[in-house]
Amino acid sequence: MEKSYLPTQTSIERDWYIVDAADQRLGRLASEIANVLRGKNKPEFTPHMDTGDFVIVVNAEKVVVTGKKRTQKLYRRHSGRPGGMKTETFAKLQDRLPERIVEHAVKGMLPKNSLGKQLFTKLKVYAGGDHPHSAQQPQELKIQTIPGATN
Questions:
Q1: How far is Cα 84 from Cα 63, in angstroms, rounded to an integer?
Q2: What class has domain 16-64+106-140?
Q3: How far apart are CA 58 and CA 24, in angstroms?
Q4: pLDDT, one tens digit for every residue, the chain (151 residues)
Q5: What is the pTM of this model?
Q6: DSSP of 102-144, one letter per residue?
Q7: What is the rounded CA–CA span in Å between residue 30 and residue 69?
Q8: What span, in angstroms and rounded, lies between the C-alpha atoms of 83 and 149?
């Protein structure tokens, strides 16, 4: 009887990729990053295993959204106390913590279980162009989003 191929954790090669988020659309950028984190770009992809790579995102402060999302999109967080809901628009959160916008978008595209939490730890987001992961020699990952006018 033939068996399906199942990769072992030691046989999976983990690469490091760097993505420049400057002038990239948020959703399209996040979906490509989520695919790399899950390992869907590899031939040995297995849905219940961590076969993905590490992703470094730089220039998170320069990510763009279209339409009126800049003023109308809301980010919510709750302190856990009664009446502890805090809301912020995209523009305010981008001024305060631009990394959180990309992290929030990518996390929403990962599985909602312990595997998703494990995959999320392989995402490193930085507001500026600098990152402390040069020792890992990350390869540049080109993400093609729709060119044209940004609103």
A1: 29
A2: alpha beta
A3: 11
A4: 888 889 998 999 999 999 999 999 999 999 999 999 999 999 999 999 999 999 999 999 999 999 999 999 999 999 999 999 999 999 999 999 999 999 999 999 999 999 999 999 999 999 999 999 999 999 999 987 666 555 5
A5: 0.91
A6: HHHHHHTTS-SSHHHHHHHTTEEE-SSS--S-GGG-PEE----
A7: 16
A8: 40
The first and second tokens of residue 144, run together, are: 């093609």
Tokens of 112: 């909602």
Per-domain residue ranges of the chain: 16-64+106-140
Please give the radius of gyration of the chain, using alpha carbons only, rounded to the nearest integer.
Answer: 17
Bridge pairing between strands 54-58 and 74-78: unpaired
The C-alpha angle 88, 58, 62, rounded to 5 degrees, equals: 50
Q: Are strands 16-20 and 74-78 parallel, antiparallel or unpaired?
A: unpaired
The structure tokens 């507001």 sit at: 127
Q: Which two tokens stand for residue 16?
A: 């490091």
